[in-house]
Amino acid sequence: MDDYIIRLVDISKEYFGNRVLKNVNLKVKPGEIHALVGENGAGKSTLMNILFGMPVIHNTGGFTGEIYFDGEKVDINSPKEAMEKGIGMVHQEFMLLPGFTITENIKLNREITKHNLISRLLGERLKSLDMRAMRKDARAALDTLGLDIDEMLVVEGLPVGHKQFIEVAREIDKSHVRLLVFDEPTAVLTEIEADLFLEAVKKLSDKGIAILFITHRLDEVMRVADNITVIRDGEVVGELTREEASVEKMARLMVGRKIDRIQKNGRSPEENNNDEVILQIKNLRVNMPGEKVKGVTLDVKKGEILGIGGLAGHGKIGIANGIMGLFQASGEVYFKGKKVKLNNPKDALSKGLAFVSEDRRGVGLLLNESIQTNIMLTAMQVQEKFLKKIGGIKFIDRKTAAEYAKKIIADLDIRCTGPEQLVRRLSGGNQQKVCIARALALEPELLFVSEPTRGIDVGAKKIVLDLLLQLNREMGMTIVITSSELAELRSICDRIAIIYDGKLEGILLPDADDTEFGLMMAGGYSSKTKEVS
Amino acid sequence: MGERLKKAIHNFGYTRIIIILFLAMLIISAVMLKLQMKNIVNGMLVRTGMNGLLTLAMVPSIQSGTGLNFGLPIGILCGLVGAVTSIAIDLSGIKAFFIANIIGIALALVAGYVYGVILNRVKGQEMLIGTYAGFSVVSGMCMFWIFAPLRSPKMIWPYGGRGLRVTISLEGIFDKILNNWLSKKILGVDVPFGLLLYVVAFCVLIWLFSRSKTGIAMQAAGGNPVFAEASGINIDKMRIVGTVLSTVLGAMGILVYAQSYGFLQLYTAPLFMAFPAVAAILIGGASINDATITHVIIGTFLFQSLLVVAQPVANQILPEGNLSEAVRIIISNGIILYALTRIGGGEQ
User: Fold this and answer.
1) Is B30 part of a structural domain of the chain?
2) CA pair distance B265, B275, nearest whole angstrom
3) N or C: which end of chain B has fewer CB within 10 A?
């Protein structure tokens, strides 16, 4: 009747009287790569939960609308039913058993078995694994994705990118899979890994598998998607083909307001002629799992925005974490000529350094506490701010704390119901602002910021970056920003240091050539003459 | 409207609602069985007061991140040693109670510190280790009760021999010293204002502590250790502070309990004393990560009231001697069991 593999017709959904989806229509043909883009909270996940018959949907009153799979009206009541129909899902978080090999992970619960002596006597359950056949299947699935890796390796310790591929391999090994849903698959990948991944996605679609790709990385959408559906606030606001689409157009639809393309704000060395070194890092080694730093020597100039870039796993994240005492570190760090004690967060904080962690929910926030408590806590513990003495005991001074919180909520435009709101209930972008507010309460002279825009939507991204610029330009705060997104670094930094294999590969100006950045990130620069500005 | 009600119920916590309904059911049957309600209400208030501090002892340990303090018997033993010493030097009245507290607190400071250091080495399994630490210390102290060089006739067996008695009467020492203080009859019910005031005073102190610099640091260490570390807080130290406070409250708590009960219970009696306190705070709505003074007050009242009402009701319904005792044990342990299944908290 129709040649669509999946058709969602007039899907609407309410959560406690709150409409999160309004008459959403979506259709995907076999072999088509269909991108679903939208800001966080636009309703993408809810739509996918409906498609998979997740219990959360039924528990909250179900939905209205119809789903047609392969031309037939279907009623999907559980993720299991969805899988039986041939809908596969690759999650953002990996669901892999670390101690098992790649093959075992791919074949988990669908192992190929063969009879042995005991099973012939005692029944099916005691059949042994046919490892050879399983390896063959796993190999075939990995080859489809173009991943050249031994299928008998143990998953534990593999790079994130490979884990993502294994996750996908498991889905395509289910031989009848006809529609694959990717939920922000490249969010955790580095740019190079993402490239490989997108290639693999294309290969899959060539095989006739329909692909639904949820993301907010718009340039990826431009590269792979055949068709694009943009949703905003639960409504479809745009259906584009690749020919019609452009990054600006999608971003505009998504955010609902015009956003200017990130421009370069970094200053040239002449403009920023302050040569005073505020932070000296000498032979810093940090033992941070997955991000080891193996001897970095680097100077940070007063009043600059220094970017630290590099591929995931090469140690760029370890630098700030090491200096701030969160991971075992050795080497020498001088701040304004004074030695900073390593492995001692308190010393670093009290010397005037502050850190906005990349692990927002893990390190950055007390999720079950109020915005106010989060903002003032570090300053209170380290600098004795927001305290008053009553009878020799230091009590929290709620009045000054509340005043400060209100002021900074207004300054940073944190969207909330008030300083008493729990941080857990804020969106990612606003949580990030709370993290920054907490660091600002310390009135630091140097601020480390790691992955400030990870996992927050386009609109909020720009606000966060603008905020950092503003802090630097107006308050003269020195900022060291670590990010996996090179474009982001190039948009605000004065200089960008590239870390490769735990060491400084070189320092570039933001307007340096793409190829130079590429070369440095891949470690091919050491042989060439070093340009250190 | 229906939605709102649903949300309100959800926020209040199903655990508390179920327990309240059960309590209401028992009270109604008590009234229908024409039981002495005045005595029952008095029993509820007295038992809430006498167990209040023991439940309160759970708050610092939960807030500092060591979870429910199943090692509470350690603190209880400190309090008991305090009481025994105060009897041995032949004190009575307020002086006896005061000195027992001083000695108990002093011992609890040391014991709490040592226990805190141990808990810092077994992060993630505090509750299991705590249970067995409590068990072993109780057993170890059994030897102390036997070999302690105390000869006061109030405490040794009437026929002489070695060791202290299993239960030591506090009559003439500090029996009911708090229960009788400021006690007034209201509508025919004896209300132990003094006892309740004493407990409320410590609740306020702990609440004040939670708003001090150290108190906030301790809560941060419990709420998110990595965050706390990144804020320059010494997590191990804060966990020790929480454990010491909890142990001290355990020591003081058992003295309040003992003066109301009228007896000191030595040997294996402290073994299971952590469980009613744990059950009470869980019923009050706390979880292993979150506990407040409100949880303590509501929880202690609900849990102890249930026990108070359940016993006479069971007696009436099943007059055959042993059966009612069995029913009582089933009910009290049943509530503890139910509370433990709610360990994740009622508000999620």
Assistant:
1) no
2) 16
3) N
Q: Is residue B347 part of a domain?
A: no
Interface of B with A (CB under 8 A): 3, 7, 208, 211-214, 216-217, 219-220, 223-224, 226-227, 229-233, 289-290
Which tokens sit at A155?
A: 């998953």
Structural domain including A486 reads 277-521
Strands A305-309 and A353-356: unpaired
Domain count, chain A: 2
Quote the ipTM score. Answer: 0.80
pLDDT winner (highest mean) among A227-241, B155-169, B226-240: B226-240
- One domain for residues A116 and A241: yes
**Tell me, what CATH number does A312's domain have?**
3.40.50.300
Which residues span the domain enclosing B299? 2-24+36-341
Whether B182 and B197 have beta carbons less than 8 Å apart is answered as yes
Number of domains in chain B: 1
Give per-residue pLDDT as tens, A422-474: 888 887 778 888 999 999 999 999 999 998 887 676 677 888 888 898 888 88
> Any CB–CB contact under 8 A between A396 and chain B?
yes
Which of the pair, B72 or B340, is modelled with greater confidence? Answer: B72
Residue type, position B297, single letter: I
Assign A528 a pLDDT band (cuts: 50, 70, 90).
Answer: very low
Name the band, by pLDDT with cuts 50, 70 and 90, for residue A283: very high
Do strands A387-390 and A393-396 pair parallel, antiparallel, or not at all (unpaired)?
A: antiparallel
Alpha helices in B33-92 (DSSP H): 37-56, 58-63, 72-88
- Of A491, A486, A499, A493, nearest to A526 by C-alpha is A499
B50-67 residue pLDDT tens = 999 999 999 999 999 998
- The three-state secondary structure class of B52 is helix
Residue B31 lies in a domain: no
Do A483 and A389 share a structural domain? yes
pLDDT of residue A257: 47
Residue B190 lies in a domain: yes
Nearest to B211 among A365, A384, A396 (CB): A396
> pLDDT value at position A53?
84
- What is the domain-level CATH number for residue B151? 1.10.3470
The four Cα atoms B22, B24, B27, B29 give a dihedral, to 10 degrees, of -70
pTM, two decimal places: 0.72
User: If pLDDT is split at 50, 70 and 90, which confidence band does A532 have?
Assistant: very low
Instruction: Give the number of other Cβ atoms within 10 Å of residue B227's Cβ.
Output: 25
Q: How many A/B residue pairs have CB atoms within 8 Å?
A: 73
User: Does residue B137 contact residue B73 with C-beta atoms inside 8 Å?
Assistant: yes
**Residue A405 burial (10 A CB sphere; 0-12, 13-18, 19+):** buried
Q: Is A271 inside any structural domain? A: no
Taking residues A84-91, what's their average pLDDT? 82
Q: Using N-to-C axis directions, what is the helix angle for B235-261 and B193-209, rounded to 10°?
A: 180
Residues of chain B with Cβ-Cβ distance to A16 below 8 Å are 3, 7
Say if A263 falls within a structural domain: no
pLDDT 10s digits, A350-377: 999 999 988 888 888 888 888 999 999 9
Instruction: Provide the mean pLDDT of chain A.
Output: 82
Dihedral class, residue A319 (left if φ above 0, else alpha if ψ from -120 to 50, else beta): alpha
